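User: Let's play a game. I give you a shape written as tokens, and you guess the letters that built it. Ready? Here's round one.
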């Protein structure tokens, strides 16, 4: 029974109940039996509707960690990017449903490996950047009826990022040389098995990492989380 239909049943039952009690207030015990039956029908209808909402909508909290693989989409004769790996830890509040949404916080350390081509030679060095991300997510649970046992989901996120630190390197890239506030998009897929959450996805930057250089960061990531 859908919520829309159940509301009609409740109102029709309530109207009928009002008319009936007005007529049967002075009648015999059989009227009271019918009266009690109508009350029970209304009560059970409301209970079923609330139970359905409770089953399909539930708060979840997810703690997760994972690995990431990073690259800079550079368009410059000065820099050449090579993939580097890093790690991340995060927390997410998730409002469940067929369509779900969530908001979280993530500490993300991304490692970048770059060649620096200057007038005399070429320097290669790796450096890390530590970011604080605030992913705001919307997604779809593909198997909402079995989500407490196994479920597949897809999601997209908007990710504001605040840069916390830049690791030492011989490339001359310091925190002052980078954009410390950036914005990126994120998309991915995942599977929930009981209390475990496994996800994989791609994070694509909209802003340059290095100032005055085309250097949008891209990141593949894998998460292992615990839902409670």
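Assistant: Ready! My guess for every position:
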């Amino acid at each position: 029974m859908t919520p829309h239909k159940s509301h009609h049943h409740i109102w029709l039952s309530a109207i009928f109940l009002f008319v009936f009690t007005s007529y049967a207030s002075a009648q015999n015990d059989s009227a009271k039996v019918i009266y009690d039956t109508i009350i029970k029908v209304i009560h059970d209808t409301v209970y079923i509707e609330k139970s359905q909402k409770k089953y399909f909508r539930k708060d979840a909290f997810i703690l997760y960690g994972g690995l990431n693989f990073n690259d800079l989409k550079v368009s410059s004769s000065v820099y050449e990017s090579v993939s580097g790996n890093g790690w991340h830890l995060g927390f997410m509040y998730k409002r469940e449903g067929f369509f779900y949404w969530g908001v979280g916080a993530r500490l993300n350390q991304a490692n970048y490996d770059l060649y620096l081509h200057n007038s005399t030679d070429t320097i290669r060095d790796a450096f890390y950047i530590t970011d604080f991300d605030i992913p705001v997510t919307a997604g779809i649970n593909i198997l909402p009826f079995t989500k407490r046992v196994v479920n597949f989901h897809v999601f997209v996120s908007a990710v504001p990022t605040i840069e916390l630190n830049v690791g030492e390197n011989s490339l001359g890239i310091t925190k002052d040389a980078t954009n410390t506030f950036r914005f990126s998009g994120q998309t991915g897929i995942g599977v929930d098995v009981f209390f475990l959450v496994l996800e994989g996805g791609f994070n694509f930057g909209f802003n340059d990492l290095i100032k005055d250089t085309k250097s949008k960061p891209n990141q593949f990531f894998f998460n292992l989380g615990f839902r409670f």
